[in-house]
Write a structure and sequence with these properties.
There is one protein chain. It contains eleven helices and ten strands. With 307 residues, it is of the alpha/beta class. It has two domains: 4-42 and 152-302, Rossmann fold, CATH 3.40.50; 61-143, 3-Layer(aba) Sandwich (Rossmann fold), CATH 3.40.50.1100. Helix 9 (208-220) links the parallel strand 8 (196-201) and strand 9. The termini are far apart. Residues 300-307 have low confidence and may be disordered.
Length: 307
């Protein structure tokens, strides 16, 4: 059986307070939960969500899904290389087949991931049993262990419970940026009564409430923990930023010397700054922001587009 110990995580991740007058003048303390320091290649919630699935795979090949710049694909490919597991990445967009690989997919391929490009119509139906069976057959991944897009399933949610447990008693509010909702679902379940979990969706559409609830029901049987969503800070949707957000992120980096990933972490920190200025947190509140990623050296997180 494959052991997660081979991935050598640095846990628990550090919790550090940063002095920022945009918070302190309202009597609010800002803490950063540095999950970006867990592992150099399986960063933050990627490690927490992937490891339970790798254990469940019991040595089988891994197949998963993502777009052309998917961080999840990169993390899965890296895990496969580190553990000697075959990996298959089903990539949205058959028009990409035959083209030169972008830096993100090239990294996946260098880590040994076999890439299978799928037309967008079939990709949207990948959750249907017949479509999934055809995808696995055509990609040569029959018998492989399937991890959903973004890595969020019941196993991943239960893996993220430990994140909440590491933050018990450390902050009244714990906030995390959300893509598929799995990290929030587990985080909230790991906190103690009296602590609240805040999710900041990076996609627009207002569907995440139902997704988080469904994940918790699959993992725990019912809604668990005290959590809510703040949906105003997607900045145009997944993989999109604005000049305002870029300026904010660069300023935060200059102030605190912390690298700020733009597509998730910057949106989270901007949301917390705005909410604090709006008086959403009572004086004396400690707010912990989970840093789930960091900028890639090749800058590919700036180039992502979801369509």
């Amino acid at each position: 059986m494959t052991s997660a110990a081979a991935l050598t995580p640095a846990l628990p991740s550090p919790l550090v307070e940063v002095r920022d007058d945009r918070f302190s003048r309202h009597g609010v303390r800002l803490l950063l939960k540095r999950d970006d320091l867990i592992h150099p290649q399986l960063i933050g919630n990627k490690w927490r969500k992937l490891v339970p699935n790798i254990e469940a795979a019991r040595g089988r090949a891994l197949v998963t899904f993502g777009g052309a710049y998917s961080n999840h694909l990169r993390a899965t490919a890296a895990a496969g290389r580190l553990l000697g597991l075959p990996t298959v990445g089903v990539v949205r967009g058959d028009e990409l087949a035959g083209r030169p690989l972008n830096p993100s997919l090239a990294r996946c391929a260098a880590d040994g991931m076999r890439l299978h490009f799928l037309d967008r119509s079939a990709y949207r139906r990948k959750g249907e049993p017949e479509t999934l069976a055809r995808i696995l057959r055509e990609s040569g991944a029959e018998g492989a262990y399937v991890i959903p897009e973004g890595g969020s399933n019941a196993e991943a949610v239960r893996g993220c419970v430990v994140l909440g447990e590491e933050l018990r008693g450390r902050a009244e509010v714990v906030a995390v940026a959300c893509g598929t909702g799995g990290t929030l679902a587990g985080l909230a379940a790991g906190l103690t009564p009296g602590q609240r979990a805040l999710g900041v969706p990076v996609l627009k559409g207002g569907f995440l409430q139902a997704e988080v609830l469904a994940l918790q029901e699959r993992a725990f049987g019912a809604r668990t923990g005290d959590w809510w969503l703040e949906e105003r800070f997607h900045f145009g949707g997944y993989a999109r930023t604005t000049p305002e957000l870029e300026t904010f992120a660069a300023d935060f980096e200059d102030r605190h010397g912390v690298p700020v990933e733009r597509l998730y972490v910057a949106k989270l920190l901007r949301a917390l700054t705005a909410l604090t200025e709006e008086g959403a947190f009572a004086p004396g509140t400690a707010v912990a922001a989970v840093v789930t990623g960091r900028p890639f050296p090749d800058g590919t997180e700036r180039d992502q587009v979801r369509d």
